Amino acid sequence: MTPKIARFLDVQQPATPCLVMDIDRVEENYRALRRVLPLATIYYAVKANPARPVLDRLRNLGSSFDAAGIEEIEQCLAVGASPEAISFGNTIKKASAISRAHALGVDLYAFDSEEELRKLARIAPGSRVYCRLMVANAGAEWPLSKKFGTSVAEARRLLPLAAEWGLRPWGLSFHVGSQQTDPLAYAAAIGSAAMLFTDLSERGLDLRFLNLGGGFPSRYRSDVPPVDDFADAIMSAMTGHFGNALPDMAIEPGRAVVGNAGVVCSEVVLVSKRNPDPAAPRWVYLDIGRFGGLAETEGEAIRYPVRTRHDGGPAGPVVLAGPTCDGADILYERSGYHLPLALTDGDRVEFDTAGAYVTTYAAQSFNGFAPLVEHYI
Predict the structure, then answer these.
(1) Is 279 exposed, middle or buried (0-12, 13-18, 19+ CB in 10 A)?
(2) What are the Cα distances from residue 39, in Å, to 46, 234, 251?
(3) Calpha distance 179→218 (Å, rounded)
């Protein structure tokens, strides 16, 4: 929690549940990435937090943007981003979305299948396209390896087809998984991509672009390597495989830009001792749960730091759950959370490092609950 957020919560006492974001911290995170990877163009992953104040600050800093849908493209354009600074990075796009993006001037598109490539050739002729590779996601706390990407062999077949079909084969991309904690995951993926660059160059195809994706982690309850370690691993692999002939590099950070810039403030609805066994945990029900925006607690993958006003006093094990009438609305049951014994209904519980993938995951009216309120300061 930044001092600015702490002051806001103390003075304003906003209604819960809410997200409070420090836009200055967003800028600090962006500048840190640009400092350690100066050769890479930053395409902010809009899906992490598409709020206008976030996009506006990043656009003023010179960021490019990775959009998952036409709505995100229009949000970027609304804050003054250039169409040339937007990548339509989703490999699953409606024909109508491609048509609209192309009409708006966007000409950089991802694909990972022949079917999507044919669609792009038909609807967005002359556009730059890059093929997403499937790479290992070991070390990632939120893996993305099953749904997206194709094999090196298939990419080798598809990229020449792009040229035949009137598109501009621009390069490759990969994603090593969200909340990636192993810097060497990037090195291994770069090695696979570099081999394909060489193969296609020998066949007369001049690729110019390598998108390293996102995955850069935020610190939650456990330490993660500093961003410098990721930069060192990336640049060592890039120079080792490409030498002085580096392609244009891109990264797509989302969590690393906005994660630690936000705090979710919630209220305790009920504390219940459901099991008479003294060793059994209390159940702490909050006014926000998995359907209210904390969807990344699925499988207890992302484990947010939790804070209360009673911290420092006697504590005991708890199960943290949301307010809805859905049995799946449990945040943490196995991750060893302990909260103060003094905690009671009406107390506030704050989730730190919650600036990414919260507001856009929030259901609109599940069980009648409104989405959490957003404050950008």
Answers:
(1) exposed
(2) 21, 11, 10
(3) 7
Contact yes or no for 324/291 (Cβ under 8 A): yes
Give Cα separations from 373 to 21, 231, 243, 263, 369 (angstroms). Answer: 11, 35, 49, 12, 11
| Token couple for 171 | 């390069």
Q: What is the pLDDT along the chain (377 residues), one digit of tens a residue?
A: 999 999 999 999 999 999 999 999 999 999 999 999 999 999 999 999 999 999 999 999 999 999 999 999 999 999 999 999 999 999 999 999 999 999 999 999 999 999 999 999 999 999 999 999 998 677 667 666 678 999 999 999 999 999 999 999 999 999 998 889 899 999 999 999 999 999 999 999 999 999 999 989 999 998 999 999 999 999 999 999 999 999 999 999 999 999 999 999 999 999 999 888 888 999 999 999 999 999 999 999 999 999 999 999 999 999 999 999 999 999 999 999 999 999 999 999 999 999 999 999 998 889 999 999 999 99
The pTM assigned to this predicted structure is 0.95
CB 289 within 8 A of CB 264: no
Two tokens, residue 371: 């989405």
Catalytic residue, chosen from 18, 76, 265, 325, is 325
Question: What is the set of domains in the chain, with CATH numbers?
Answer: 24-259 (3.20.20.10), 260-376 (2.40.37.10)
Give the three-class secondary structure for 64.
strand
Provide the b/e sequence for 214-243 (b: ≥16 CB within 10 Å): bbbbbebeeebbebeebbebbbebbeebbe
Q: Is 325 a catalytic residue?
A: yes
CA distances 283 to 69, 265, 331, Å, are: 39, 18, 11
CA-only gyration radius of the chain, Å: 22
| Residue 38 exposed, middle or buried by CB count within 10 Å (0-12, 13-18, 19+) | exposed
